Amino acid sequence: MYYLGVDLGGTNIAAGLVGQDLRILRKGSVPTKAEDPHAIVADMATLCRRLADEEGIPLQEIAYVGIASPGIADREAGEMIYANNIPFRHFPLAGLLADALGVRRVFLENDANAAALGEAKAGAARGAKNSVMITLGTGVGGGIIIGGKVYMGSNCAAGELGHIVIEKDGVPCTCGRRGCWEAYSSATALIRMTKEKMQADADSLLHQLAKKEGKVSGRTAFEAARAGDAAAQEVVDTYISYLACGIGNLVNIFQPETVVIGGGISNERENLLRPLRPAVVAESYGGGVVRSPELRIAELGNDAGIVGAACLGL
Amino acid sequence: MYYLGVDLGGTNIAAGLVGQDLRILRKGSVPTKAEDPHAIVADMATLCRRLADEEGIPLQEIAYVGIASPGIADREAGEMIYANNIPFRHFPLAGLLADALGVRRVFLENDANAAALGEAKAGAARGAKNSVMITLGTGVGGGIIIGGKVYMGSNCAAGELGHIVIEKDGVPCTCGRRGCWEAYSSATALIRMTKEKMQADADSLLHQLAKKEGKVSGRTAFEAARAGDAAAQEVVDTYISYLACGIGNLVNIFQPETVVIGGGISNERENLLRPLRPAVVAESYGGGVVRSPELRIAELGNDAGIVGAACLGL
User: Fold this and answer.
1) At a CB cut-off of 8 Å and minimum separation 6, what does A129 contact?
2) Measured distance CA(A307)–CA(B259) in Å, rounded
């Protein structure tokens, strides 16, 4: 038995043919025609057929197709209620792809939720019943897995974990609120903090590293701190303290077995986890009395959407 | 078929005999011997027998007994892992009560979780699949209902919704963190805000009301605001804005059908809900695009623990 996982992004449609062990046997991608939902369906179908063909697997041997899409996905209706970058407005994406491919079962899920499911089934939270995934990238994405399934809430819009206010009336967030966790723990926020520190400290190593790299990135502060720069260490410490605050909130709410951390900043791996672990325990309710969740770096990287989509019918 | 619900409090053990319609047919209470867990078991058994006797129901017709207890309850093991005010340390409360009563099925749950379940099955969140209950009292209590069941997390300690930081490095909380929601939205917090305003404004009506009542309570600011006092209105507005911030966080995380508000402050009913509703929508992600949860005042009052306990085996 095989599964097809499709990860719809703003730039590319990626898809993978996945085996029963949840490994990707073959993958491919095509550009996203983001302005035309029907073209997206046609391109998804072509890509899926091609992967199955190339692997020599008849479509009848595909148990189901899963789609991970940005936006609000109604998985019961199989429709995209809304997306930001693609004109989905109650668009029956699952049914249209099922028709185009001639398959019976197509499942649909929000991409951050699908990634969390992928990590829970075949990645860093493997074996956990309850896990939470956060993605530290341009924003802070979130996915909640309860009892091995995506928790989507009553209107399919749950899990906006980046939009928990941790500093009332704080930094404006793209969502319209002020002080959201995303405004302090995204890569974007780390870059902002790094630039602010550079303005305040003309002698910091941060300036040399930024010049060498051609820009300030989410890595700049971590690298300069490793080289012993005190100003950069302050940036990293501040960033970690905000990250621990938000993860502590999630622990007090969910007490999951595992918190999975993905996105660009997670490439720091142990440099991130080492200071983060004790800080999260200190921020957790009953820290000493109950077992604290494991903090783990995501394992599936860019494939999390494909693998998660391929897990939607499990 | 009947159920027995037992609500263990620091001061009293309350219990109720509950019918299949989830109404309490008869209830009673005895003082809690808080220093002696075994005496608590014996007193629970005596109280349960008495209620069944008085109602003329043989214990064999009781489907099960449910216990709501403060602290961390492991419902699978039937033991109280820990409590603050009662010396429970991995105490097998469910099994001991089953033995003492000679019944087979005794269920155990944390009291805030049980109250949330009671409201979900027989109160303000009746019919909702996913709901969240918050209790605005001495602290801010929380309970999470997902798919009609209590969500307890992987270590039985989930749902500490009062201990979500909403103001990093803010007011110290009893839990050891700073800036927890509880430190801004509990009755205790409202009283603190009211007293602070009284110190700043010697002419406010707050002084007269506090003198009349003999103390500052969670009602003082609401009452003075209703009488047109501007200083009191500022306190109420501030309190509502913190409350909306925390509820907005819960909406963005859970997107439940219903948020149930209980505890002393909820006695303000529409005076609380009227300003709260638009404030919560403004604090919610995708406010206009997706349906916002209903905000409702808890219906079961002091019986929520009994009724919730009686629902534990449903």
Assistant:
1) A146, A147, A148, A257, B154
2) 34
Question: With an 8 Å Cβ cutoff, is A294 touching chain B?
Answer: no
If residue A117 lies in a helix (H) or strand (E), which one and from where to where? helix A111-122
CATH topology of domain A2-120+303-310: Nucleotidyltransferase; domain 5 (3.30.420)
Interface of A with B in 250-289 (CB under 8 A): 252-257, 282-283, 285-286, 289
- pLDDT digit string, tens, across residues A36-56: 999 999 999 999 999 999 999
Contact B277/B34 with Cβ under 8 angstroms? no
Give ipTM to 2 decimals.
0.95
* pLDDT tens-place string over residues B136-173: 999 999 999 999 999 999 999 999 999 999 999 999 99
What pLDDT is recorded for position A159?
97
Q: Which amino acid is at A74?
A: D
Tell me which residue in A151, A245, A291 faces B168 most closely, judged by beta carbons. Answer: A245
In whole angstroms, how far apart are CA B4 and each of A210, B70, B303? 67, 18, 13
* Cα A199 to Cα B77: distance, rounded to the nearest angstrom: 57
- The CATH 3.30.420.40 portion of chain A extends over 2-120+303-310, 128-298
| Segment 87-146 of chain A within 8 Å of chain B by CB | 128-130, 144, 146
Instruction: Look up the CATH number of domain B128-298.
Output: 3.30.420.40
**pLDDT at residue A286 tops 90:** no
Beta-sheet strands, E only, within chain A: 2-8, 12-18, 24-31, 62-69, 72-74, 79-82, 89-91, 106-110, 131-136, 140-146, 149-150, 258-262, 294-297
CB contact under 8 A, B291 and A155: yes
